[in-house]
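Writing this down once: the sequence line spells out the residues, with the fold written below as integer tokens. This is how one looks:
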Amino acid sequence: MQEEFQFGAPGGKDGLDAWRRERAVQVAALAKTLGIPLGHPCRVELAGDVELEGMLTLADEELLTPDPRNPGIRLQIGRCIFTSPEIVSVVRLD
């Protein structure tokens, strides 16, 4: 049975904030599994002598974090999107 929604009720949980906290935990676990510093400023060298510098994030904001065994996980720095197999090296800058 579904509970009644009590919008604006005192003591109610904010679903969006809860989702954001859970998402942050999932992204941190994914970063640890992949061995890359997601959510941190980085210098990334890609195949073909391309260097990028900036905040390393997931390129796609999906409800669920991607499967770490999927080689097609799309990462992003600025407007440049790439996959993890394209990475030659990553240096965390903070």
In short: Helices lie at 15-34. The chain has a mean pLDDT of 85. The two ends are 48 Å apart (CA to CA). The beta strands are 41-46, 50-58, 74-77, 80-83, 87-92.
